[in-house]
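Work Package 4 report. The design task specified in the project plan requires that, given a folded chain encoded as structure tokens, an amino acid be chosen for each position. We show below one input record used in the internal validation round.
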């Protein structure tokens, strides 16, 4: 059993009624601009939850609050009952939160394997940059690299382990970033527009990968994504934001029928299959 598998086996069962993540009345203000306005929602254990909304709705702002990039003006964000807003940013990985980014944030001159190993070391107290600087200096480096290789194999990337990241196809780099986030052994995985820039076939494959990782590692996943077909296809629940407020929350079928959601998208088709930009 790998370290990642052992960590998954020790977590609470997915049918635990207590949500893994509870967002309570979170507001964020930038000067006179209200980015989030009393937002509340839950992410149940073992679930994939989509967070959607029109451009500027506050989705990425919410991600940045959870990962401690932004400070909330008020409210609480509870992970297993612990308020993440009381923790410094460098502690977030160590309590079980990992994320990917809209723009790929890999170390281009490092090998694929070393990039993933950085994710494993980020479980310590210093974050990704410190982990990269410490690479190869820890006694458990061999174990971290073994876990990294197992993740690369699972994602079909093992043959690229010793290749530098620079010059690899965009879709491949997206998978590498996902593997790096998984190397941190998270309880909660935040995926910020993981399908952005992918082809339709790559999007379909990504959806299957996310569900498999959720099942195999007992993850909870919070997904911000503008590709509605993927969101509605893999999410157990969907929360819809507009102007920083929650306007709908439910199963994908419930959300797609909600008049407030249809109005927020200006009458657009929330079943749409195409791509689009999302700065929220």
């Amino acid at each position: 059993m790998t370290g990642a598998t052992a960590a998954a086996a020790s977590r609470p069962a997915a049918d635990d009624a207590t949500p893994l993540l509870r967002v309570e009345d979170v507001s964020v203000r930038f000067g006179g601009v209200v980015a989030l306005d009393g937002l509340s929602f839950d992410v149940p254990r073992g679930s994939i939850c989509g967070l959607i909304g029109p451009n500027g709705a506050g989705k990425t702002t919410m991600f940045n609050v959870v990962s401690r990039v932004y400070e909330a003006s008020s409210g609480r964000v509870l992970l297993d009952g612990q308020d993440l807003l009381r923790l410094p940013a460098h502690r977030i990985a160590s309590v079980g939160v990992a994320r990917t980014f809209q723009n790929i944030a890999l170390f281009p001159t490092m090998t694929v394997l070393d990039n993933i190993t950085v994710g494993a070391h980020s479980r310590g107290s210093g974050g990704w940059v410190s982990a990269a600087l410490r690479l190869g200096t820890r006694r458990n480096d061999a174990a971290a690299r073994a876990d990294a290789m197992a993740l690369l194999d699972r994602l079909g990337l093992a043959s690229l382990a010793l290749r530098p990241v620079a010059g690899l196809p965009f879709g491949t780099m997206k998978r590498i970033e996902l593997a790096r986030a998984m190397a941190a052994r998270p309880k909660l995985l935040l995926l910020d527009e993981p399908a952005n820039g992918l082809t339709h076939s790559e999007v379909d494959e990504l959806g299957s990968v996310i569900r498999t990782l959720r099942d195999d590692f007992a993850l909870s996943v919070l997904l911000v994504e503008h590709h509605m077909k993927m969101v509605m296809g893999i999410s157990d629940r969907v929360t819809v934001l507009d102007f920083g407020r929650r306007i709908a929350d439910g199963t994908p079928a419930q959300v797609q029928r909600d008049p407030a959601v249809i109005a927020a998208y200006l009458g657009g088709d929330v079943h749409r299959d195409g791509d689009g930009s999302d700065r929220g």
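The first helix runs from residue 3 to 9. Validation will be extended to a larger panel in the next phase.
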